[in-house]
Specification:
This protein is of the alpha/beta class. The chain has six helices and nine strands; from the N terminus they run ααββαβαβαββαβββ. The N and C termini lie far apart (41 Å). It binds S-adenosyl-L-homocysteine (SAH). S-adenosyl-L-homocysteine (SAH) binds next to strand 2, helix 4 and strand 4.
Length: 214
């Protein structure tokens, strides 16, 4: 897979390092995870392009830079337990799983959840569990989480996700009043009842659909 190694190097150099991604753990992981294995056969050649790509059921695999940016923004530690909302292809879950102890990922579309489950198993990512359901309600069973990442755009920050964040935990989520244009927000739980909000940058994600979403 020499051709992919070359494309991956360009992604790391131009799209990640070139745009200010500095977390060495994130850089190393994105060099290791074979992004081409998370897209359709006929999309493989485009897997390392500087853009999102379509996956099944009208959804997308995020642009590599955005995956790196969000992962960096989560300020992860090796011992962290992370909740991801929006498994999609499973690519971001795979990246997260190489940095932290355990990844819990929720996907509302059964077909995508099952395909991601099989893909991750085939590639031996053993510390990811996928649940089919409405991620706007989080996954209370395994809470609290040290970090939560939402990879679909929400109209507002879902309350259940704030509640399932550990004290000291970080939630990174695209939030916006428009269906396909959002602000990436980081919410930090500083104490039992105190949350700090920071706006990071403008982003464009598919909508988060559910009880506390659209
Ligand atoms: N992280 C993914 C990108 C996924 S795109 C990757 O690396 O490929 C966003 C995903 O969020 C879609 O698969 C969509 O079906 C899912 N989604 C939307 N609303 C959701 C909800 N309420 N709960 C769980 N998943 C949801």
């Amino acid at each position: 897979m020499k051709a992919f190694n070359y494309q991956r190097d360009i992604m790391i150099r131009d799209h990640l390092l070139g745009r200010g991604i500095r977390d060495q753990e994130v850089i190393k992981t994105m060099r290791d995870v074979p992004r081409e294995a998370f897209v359709d056969e006929r999309m493989r050649e485009k897997a390392y392009g500087d853009h999102p790509l379509p996956i099944a059921e009208g959804q997308t695999i995020s642009q590599p830079y955005i995956v790196a940016y969000m992962t960096e923004a989560l300020e992860l530690n090796h011992t962290d337990r992370v909740l991801e909302i929006g498994t999609g292809s499973g690519y971001a879950a795979a990246v997260l799983s190489r940095i932290v102890k355990m990844v819990y990922s929720v996907e509302r579309l059964g077909g995508l959840a099952e395909a991601a489950r099989q893909r991750l198993e085939l590639l031996s990512y053993t510390n990811v569990v996928i649940h089919e359901g409405d991620g706007t309600l989080g996954w209370p069973e395994h809470a609290p989480y040290d970090a939560i990442v939402v990879t679909a755009g929400a109209p507002k920050v879902p309350q259940p996700l704030c509640e399932q964040l550990a004290i000291g935990g970080r939630l990174v989520i695209p939030v916006g009043r428009s269906y396909d244009l959002q602000e990436l927000v980081r919410v930090r739980r500083v104490s039992e009842h105190d949350y700090r909000h920071e706006e990071l940058c403008g982003v464009r994600f598919v909508p988060l659909i559910g009880a506390a979403g659209w």
